[in-house]
Amino acid sequence: MTSLYGRFFAPALFAAPYQEPEEHLLDMVRCCELLLCAYLAGRGAAAGRVLPLVAPPGGIDGLPDGSVPLDLLRDSALRDYDKARFHMDARAQATAGEGGFLALQYVRELWRLNELELFAFTLALLPRYDPRFGQVFAFLEGSSKPCPPSLDLTLKLFHLAERAEQVPGYHAQRQSLRQKAEFAFLDRKGEIDGRACEFVLQNGETGLENEGTTVYLPGSLGELPLREEAAGELVRAAAEGGAGRETRYLCLKGRRGSGRTTLAQRAAERLDAPAVVFDCAVSGGLRREEFFDALGTACRECLLVQGIPVLKELDALLEEPETVRQVLETAGRFSSVVFVLLGEEAAAVELTEGRCWLEQAVPPPGREESMELWRRVLDGLPLSEQVSPWELVNKFTFTPAQIVGAAQNARGMAWMGRVLDRTALSEAAYSQTAHKLGEHATLIYARHTWDQLVLGEEERQMLRRACDQVRYKHIVYDRWGFDQRLAYGKGVSMLFAGPPGTGKTMAAQVVANDLGIEMYKVDLSQVVSKYIGETEKNLNEVFNEAKKSNVILFFDETDAILGKRTEVKDSHDKNANLETAYLLQKMEEYDGITVMTTNYKENIDSAFFRRISYVIHFSLPDAGARKHIWRGIFPPKTPLEEGVDFDYLSRQFELSGGSIKNIAVAAAFMAAAENAPVSMGHIVRAVKYEMVKQGKIMRREDYGEYGFLLK
């Protein structure tokens, strides 16, 4: 028989480095073809129709025509195979000596594949390398459709045996090969794993592209600004671990965005290993078979890049204990260290059973940590004005992910031509909040400023002091140590009391605008319920959502819920007292700003005042204050007729700021309808309508010198 080695390989290239990685893969394919040629030739003339598909470069002339039994071909063919493998190894060593990378050689050494296992891997690869090999295997398997080689056929080809009993130790070899193949390169269907196939065919030049899986290579992160010590603790736990080859599961528990993934990535980086992050929440939407295929691909990536699996958001699967158990076991097969990321409230007791399990909490960053993160991201932004990182820490209780996301959003604004001032930065920050406050509250767009607010000097100073409690938190709580003395009550609660229209809502908007904090007006009709316990439940939802969104909560006309405590005569009295106490308790626990208004301060139980930071009284404006309101109520663009008598208006009518606003708007619409500037006639008529609306009966004489304008 003609030497198959000489037909498939060029002896002159022995020990010559491979010029291209594809040459090495082609040589391994030819090793498989060499045995396939011998096997097909020994099977008889019936194999003639597929033999040309695996013919050597020189064609099929000189190959056995079926007249030579396989038994007589075996020794010669196996000897040729050994020569071919020796030829390949010599060239691979020469290539390695020159620093070349050969993906097939890499996975062989990485997976510790013996000759049979390497042959099985390459054989399984052939239909992906050239689809025609699927026809060859279909012929040998007796299938009507192209198919991959079975383990049984692989063993027969490797030993050039017609029957299983001719394979030495067939059952032991098959069991061993099956275990290794399923671990290293075969998927659930018995076909070659797509990622392993792509890695070899592309010589490792392409990364994994699999939804729900992300690979972080060492060096992409670097030293953490805040939690490098925590990463070091994980590294020590991974290195010390359990006894023997037992897999160590390192569980990081914390809020979404608290930095668990980054911490796991950094720990893997310090172990000089890639972090292969598999997002169970994203992949959990797949069918069970697809989910475990995706998990298998991620775990195979760990084998290929010698990475550490990171099971992200495993909480998404906790309602399916068997699935969770299988996920943990699958990941543990591919790595001696597995990072598991859970929510801060996830129960992990059942997960720890029978496993080497270490749990570490990852709390949200402290105020000092948040300041450092904000400082770093602000340094990279083209800000139009100086913004202190403490200003943002005092306003937003953010996770690291939210801080980074806010900076990215701000950078996008700058790319779109937006000037990055405080307002834009606040918008970028609020883009990172997700809440359901809209179910019980309405966003109020705060546009009023201090110069528009007409208020007594003492009350104005109280409002400024309230704003200062937010603006200077970092000094009092952090530098001066009050944070250690106060377990709760670090927020700011305000009660605005006074008649309707005296500027209570405007004052709340001024505070929101001054601090750059969004304000939500809570709809008490949607919160207060006649059913026992429902009001408390709704209030709890409001404050929990407010914590996520870092907003001002505005409760308008809270008399119904903050009334005087009554003697308990029945369950309704008891429930009303509980609702009031619960609201005040949640206000104390809330670290943000809460504003409440009442028209009648005397209706509020005085015992509640000690639990409220600021109680500010809003009285009806005097003549001087009314004049200031009248002069400022019309926007600069509004056409005013010369001679509008603001002295008369402020002196003649004792009105609240709200009523003056209503009059100005009504007068403006009258003037617009007449296509004329706003005149005293329009204003006086609007005053009359406002008085009638309030139930006040006035004669023409009551309008003084401008009464003649009323017809």
Quick rundown:
The chain has 711 residues and is α/β, with parallel strands linked by helices.
Protein traits:
single chain; 711 residues; alpha/beta; six-stranded mixed β-sheet; 50% helix
Q: What's the tally of helices? A: 30
- Give me the count of strands: 12
Poorly predicted runs: 564-574
Largest sheet: 6 strands, mixed
Helix content: 40-55%
- Indicate the radius of gyration in whole angstroms: 39 Å
The outline comes out as elongated
Strand coverage percent: 5-15%
Structural class: alpha/beta
Order of strands across the biggest sheet? 1-3-4-5-2-6
The end-to-end distance, rounded to whole angstroms, is: 126 Å
Overall residue-averaged pLDDT value: 86
Explain the overall architecture.
It is built from 30 helices and 12 strands. With 711 residues, it is an alpha/beta fold. The chain is elongated. It has a 6-stranded mixed sheet, with helices on both faces. A 6-stranded mixed sheet has the order 7-9-10-11-8-12, with helices on both faces. Mean pLDDT is 86; it is low at 564-574. Helix content is 50%, strand content 8%.
Question: What are the SSEs and their pairings?
Answer:
Blueprint: H1 4-8, H2 21-42, H3 70-97, H4 103-110, H5 115-129, H6 132-141, H7 151-159, H8 170-184, H9 194-201, E1 213-216, H10 228-240, E2 248-253, H11 260-270, E3 275-279, H12 280-283, H13 288-305, E4 308-312, H14 321-334, E5 337-342, H15 349-352, E6 356-361, H16 367-379, H17 389-395, H18 400-415, H19 422-430, E7 441-444, H20 457-471, H21 473-479, H22 482-485, E8 492-497, H23 504-515, E9 519-522, H24 524-527, H25 534-549, E10 552-555, H26 571-589, E11 593-598, E12 614-617, H27 623-633, H28 646-652, H29 657-674, H30 680-693
